[in-house]
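Page 37, top half.
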Amino acid sequence: MNSPARNGVKDGRISTGIGDLDNILGGGLTANRSYLLEGTPGSGKTTIALQFLLEGARLGEPGLYITLSETAAELREVAQSHGWSLDGIELFELVNEDGLDPDSEQSILEPSEVELGETIQGVMECVDRLRPKRVVFDSLSELRLLAQSSLRYRRQILAMKQYFSTRACTVLMLDDRSSDPGDLQLHSIAHGVITLEQAAQDYGTERRRLRVVKMRGVKYRGGFHDFAIETGGVAVFPRLIAAEHHTDFKAQTVSTGIDNFDQMLGGGLTVGTNTLLNGPSGVGKTTTAIRAGLTAIERGEKAAYFLFDEGMGTMLARSKAMGMDLAPHLASGDLRVHQIDPAELTPGEFASWVRNAVEQDGARFIVIDSLNAFLQAMPGEKFLLLQMHEMLSYLNQQGVITMLVLGQHGIVGDIRSELDLSYLSDTIVLFRYFEWRGQVLKAVSVAKSRTTDHETSIREFLLTEEGVKIGSPLADFEGVLTGLPNYRGKTPMMSAEPAAAED
């Protein structure tokens, strides 16, 4: 999903045809240079190369695809699968069915010498005839086989690079990385190098990412960036750097829609901060987040809900049963619920979804429910923490109120979390179960707030048909921090009012 705001190309550069890849490259490719696009088979080289040529065709620039590895028919099938037409792009096969003719075989000279010379000559004749502005050479692996020695191979690549530069061509040379992994000849010759990687997961879709290894004279965005091959082309998701994004906003405190909860928070939620709702399953974290999001919508703001765990239909039905009907807000577009499948999502793609929710949809309230499922989309905990640090910093700098839901293992007793996000959170709200007179009740407390003077008391928490209710401070509530909270006092309990009346 390429954002229009990120598709611009700086002066003196040409676009790759993929807006977010241009963003990573600092404005696109320098014209009239040769670039190496390397990756294992299936990593997306051909798709990116075709988008590069199609962008040129859109601008009226002649394009040439020189292929030693795929036939013209196969290339047209790839284009057709994406809904593209290759009209205006010349497809040139260096090896065609004539190469299968026994009469074409050499018997006096060394075949590799003749074939390599004929291949290079064929490339030059085609370029001189068509005078393209953009060229794709697919692939260098076949050229390496024809050269047979690294010296001849390097010499031919240098000769081709010089030849193309004198013809005012911008060239993408594709390579499948079948050579020795330590062989960096191509890296030293090319003006720029982009490496594509794909990795199969134990479960779920394969993960693809790219890295700009080298780009002479250009300040590019380093590190790995996730990308996906979709119908319609490659979608690149630049690594999020929070320091690059800042919006002026007015710091203020807004209501959650629950009076006693606002009081516990020291006045409500502060714009440009994030709140972590922490507790065991079923205790009311999601309902609290929905209530706060609905209040934001009623204030005239837009909200986005990223739902990992629960089905969207279940969430809507449960919310309506508690007096929070979300359907009208979904219909109006004030609320967007994104049902996420962690097995099919990369971290970079998720960060891109969050950015689009803020920058394109105008969301000022965001819920991520839950971080437990998001963890499953990551290769390791340390990467999740870094990812979440950048994302939360970005959201805070955009003046967005963020609510994070983190489920804990266990119901009572030893309750644990899969990861510790306390240092990243501006506000931490703890939800717990406790027992009272043979009943399992719920309690809530605010453990931390960086922006307000929060209440330190523990209150009873109740889910009803009328929504969320929070009672008076439980002065005799003990053991909440031990993981096995219990109540020994005489404070009247909201949950026990009918039972008390019977007594």
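Page 37, bottom half:
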Amino acid sequence: MTSEHPSAAYAAHAQEYTDLFGSMDAVHDDDRDLVARWAAGLAGRVVDAGCGPGQWTDFLARQGVDAEGVDLAEPFLERARAAYPGVRFRRAALDDLGVPDGSLGGVLAWYSVIHTAPPQMDAVLAELARALAPGGGLLLGFFRGPRVEPFDHAVATAWFWPPDELARRLDRAGFDVVATASRTDPGVRPHGAVTARRRPGGDA
């Protein structure tokens, strides 16, 4: 398994990834509907964390959301700015979003934590919790598996997560889990999604 940092790996594969996945045409209808419903219940600015080529950030903006995309791979950001000139994009990391405490109404992390190794996951979730206002929403998309274990992803090492384990970690970070979803489509790895709210009062 590669030891290259995921952002460097994605920078090297940015065009290939964008061609395959950088459009809402490549999105499952269930996922589009889930994100739209989630976004409709938010108030305030939303960060698309690990936005890649920016299609989800643009989707959120088209729903009337005050959305901003962040990513570490500059080639993705360049493509996003060119494709969606009316949407904000900037460079930031999952564990350092670069926003004030409690300033966000929502964070979308759609398949952006899949390369986060278990020892680093708590720090990422803590940063998302720090950035969100109490009651703010989080939506995570991930590869679902029966245990936490790595696999050889096409770009960089990724991890399967059981929904229950992610829920435990989210609770520890100060979130209340609202709902989980899963789907297994032919020819692809099992999909998982979890919706959570920053706990009122901010108590972790």
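Margin note: Residues 106 and 197 are 9 Å apart (CA to CA).
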